[in-house]
Each structure stands twice: as C-alpha cells, then as structure tokens.
Amino acid sequence: MEKILVRGGHPLCGCVEVSGSKNAALPIIYACVLVRDKCIIENVPCVSDVRHSFDILRGIGARIRNLTKTTVEIDCTDVECGISEYSLVRQLRGSYYLLGAEFGRFGRSRVAYPGGCDFGVRPIDQHIKGFEALGGTVVTDGGYVEITSPTGRARGANIYFDVSTVGATLNVMIAAATCEGMTVIENAAREPHIVDCANFLNSCGARISGAGSNVIKIKGVDQLHGTNYAIIPDMIEAGSYMVAAAATHGSVRVTNVIPKHLESIAAKLEEAGVVIDEYDDAVHVSVPGELRHTNVKTLPYPGFPTDMHPQMCALLCCAKGTSFINESIFDNRFRYVEELKRMGAKIKVDGRIVSIEGGTPLSAAPLMAVDLRGGIAVVIAALTCEGVSEITGVNLIERGYDDAVGKLRGLGADVKKVLLPDPDVKKANA
Ligand code: EPU
Question: Distance between terminal CA atoms of the chain?
C-alpha cells in the first residue's frame, strides 16, 4: 500500500509545469481506433487512466510504443472489434469512448460499463440516444453495452442532448467522424477537450466544425489518415496547482497553460484575494493579504469546472467567513468533505450546497483520497497545516495527476510517497 506523507505549513514557491490534459488525451487515444495508420501523439500525460487505456487498446490489437516519456505512437491498423476485458474497462470512465470509436470503425461494439469516480448516479442514456440516432441498436445487458447496426456502418443524424454532457458529445463526435452522411449535435458540451479531440480528428482528415460552440457539425468521411498531434495542457491540473499555491500563501508560476481555459478559475481565485498575473503560456499566483470568502457554482464550460470543486473547498477552508459551493453538475460529489472535516474543517452539505465556515487553521490527520479531485483536495488541505498528514488512496490521485508528489516537491513542499508493507503480509510475517 502506498501513502503520501505531507508535512505542511510552508508556502509553495517556484515554478511548476503542467502536463497534457487527461480528459483530452482519453478521447483522442480511443479515436485512434478510427485510423488505419500510425498517429503520433505528443504531450501525453503519464497518468494511470492513460496507461489503462493503452492496455485496453493493446487488447484489441493496437500497437503502441513510447517514443519519449510524453510522445506515443499509436498504430490501430490491425485492431479487431473484440470484447474488452471488464477488469480494465472498469478502471476508468473514459473507456466508454471505445464504444464510439468501434461503432465508427466497425459499425458495432461491445464494451463493459465504464468505471470512474463515484459521484452518485452517472447515467449514459445520452450516449445511447446518440448511438441509436446514428443507426445503432443498443442493448445493455449483463454489465455490457452492445451496439450493432444492420448496415455495418453508422449513419449521420441530428442529435439534441438533454443535458450538457462532455462524454456523450465526444462519443457521438468520434462515432460520426467516419459515418455515412452529416451529423449535427445540438446542445453539445463546449469544454476545451472537445475542441482538442475535434482538432485531432480534423488533422486526420475528418470534417468537423463548430466544436467549442453548442452546435457541432460532422460530415462523415470514408477514411482517416495518420497524424502528428500535441494534446492541450490540463486546465484542471493547472487549476489545482494555482489553488495549492494560494492556499499556502505561496508564490508560484504555473507554466504550459492556456490562460483562456483558466478564466473562470482565475476569476474565483481573484475574488478570494489571490493575485493572478497572466502571461502567454503561464500564470503567476500570489496572495498579498488575507484570503477572502466567496461563493462558487459549478457549471459546464466556460463556467467554473466541477473538477475544481473539491480543491476550491480546501482553499475556502482557509478564508475567513462563510463560503458556499453549489455543485450543479453531479448530485453526489461530496465524499471528500468527511476527509476535510477530519482536519477540523467546518463544512456542511445540504443537498447540492456546501457551506464552509473558514478561517480556523486545519490540523494534520490520517486522510484518504476518496476520488481523483477529492484526493488532490486533501493533499492541498494537508499542505496548509503544520504536522504530518498521511494520505492513502494514492492510486486514485495518480489516475489523473502526473507525478503530483515530484511536482509539489519541486515547489518546496515537504511531501513524499512511501510504500508501506501490506498489513496482511506484515501480520503473516509477525
Ligand atoms: N449525464 C446524463 N446522461 C449521460 C451523460 C451524462 O445524465 O448520458 C449527466 C451526468 O450525470 C452529469 C452531467 O450529465 O450530471 C455531466 O456529465 P458529463 O457527461 O459531462 O461527464 P462525464 O463525461 O461522465 C467528464 C469528465 C469528468 C468531468 C465531467 C464534467 C472524463 C473522462 N471525465 O465526465 O472528469 O467531471 O466530464 O466536466 O472526461 C475528472 O477528471 O475528475 C472527472 C470526473
């Protein structure tokens, strides 16, 4: 078992470089299934969701090799539409992009239900609605989603999503890239990773327009060709280091970012008394005085991202006064709250509203990462308090943060990862 040990109470200082976006990398990696050729993808984050995705693709015949630590060649020329191993697919949410990719290439797919962080109910009805509109017959049975089509090829359609959904927008866009005819997605999600996946597909010869707006048009093409493509920086990783800098009253330059993607995060940090200086591909974060309480509502892009909610809560625990966070995307993204309460945080959850009575210093405690963003939030909270906090559930943090411990150490944090003996083995050896 691994633990992260954090001895907090020191401001973070220096420079941290952000990795490629996990939530852009995943759909792009699966979209390679549509391409009977080699794709070279740069700025790939070294996170376990990506590694598991490579294993899933290797399982259907993809040849994948690392050219450098962050550049990968993916060759899906010979992939076959197989049944992907349940034990791998359930490791992550993004594995559901295999459905859209296989449906687009083979006109059929069978993939186990995806895993991912536990935020309560996470339906995939909009994905299914999209695949059905594209001519698929979808059966969900025995933990699997199976798509078949009488013609063996998806066909273009008009699709209106009932909610703004990142996953279904990407899945339908991927499936439609090589289908017959024109697809129009209305009420499409507008996140930067959707634009990035559309740009990747277009660099392979797809004809997608409107990504980044709420109407995306996809003119299906017969074939895609190989490409060389660099993934955008991870806005949530960037935001997490911005919050860590602010919570510790540090002074940090966060590099390899697209400042436009960070606008809602920067705006809320500024309301909380943080100074953000913007450069071409970097932001500098500092806190000249006291942190101030503020209110946040999570919204689809360009609103404040739900993936920054737990980190923002950790920060607001350090701001005097009462702050509120309204979680409007997921109905139960609050499991991290109990962990912050172990540190003495005064937080209440009422429905989807989190109220935070901030300003009392937190104290070190044994803690658990309950999910990816909740995990980094407890690390941030631990960085603010004196004493040593031990954090378990490291594997959840590593799903989406590339070398978080190394990057925090680079900012002067007293943080290390330790490998503890398995308690059962220890007992047996005693
Ligand atoms: N929804 C439906 N039906 C669907 C799909 C979604 O009702 O068929 C609802 C969800 O229940 C939710 C809302 O629509 O209330 C938004 O869900 P969305 O589909 O946008 O989320 P997702 O695709 O499951 C992705 C990211 C999440 C991120 C959300 C929102 C990946 C692999 N996951 O999830 O990332 O929170 O979009 O931006 O891209 C993370 O990185 O920590 C993470 C959880």
Answer: 18
Q: Among 76-80, 85-89, 166-170, where is mean pLDDT lowest? A: 85-89
Pocket residue to mutate for ligand 1, from 329, 331, 352, 402, most atoms within 8 A of Cβ: 329
Atom of ligand 1 nearest to the CA of 400: 41
Instruction: Verify whether ligand 1 is closer than 6 Å to residue 109 (CB atom).
Output: no
Within the chain, all domains assigned CATH 3.65.10.10 are found at 3-18+233-429, 22-230
Question: Which ligand 1 atom is the nearest neighbour of the CA of 49?
Answer: 32
Q: 357 CA to middle of ligand 1, Å?
A: 29
* Any ligand 1 atom below 6 A from CB of 26: yes
Q: Judge: domain 3-18+233-429, CATH 3.40.120.10.
A: no
pLDDT digits (tens, 9 = 90+) for 191-211: 999 999 999 999 999 999 999
Whether 162 lines ligand 1, by a CB cut-off of 6 Å, is no
The architecture of the domain spanning 22-230 is: Alpha-beta prism (3.65)
Asked whether residue 424 carries a pLDDT value surpassing 80, the answer given is no
Atom of ligand 1 nearest to the CA of 170: 23
Name the residue of 47, 162, 163, 304 whose CB sits within 8 Å of the most ligand 1 atoms, as the mutation to test its pocket.
163
Give bridge partners of residue 295 from the DSSP assignment. 324
The residue type of 130 is: G
Write the burial class of residue 63 (CB in 10 Å: 0-12 exposed, 13-18 middle, 19+ buried): middle
Predicted confidence (pLDDT) at residue 84 exceeds the cutoff of 80: no
Compare 407 and 428 and report the one with higher pLDDT: 407
pTM higher than the cut 0.85: yes
Any idea which residues carry the catalytic annotation? 117
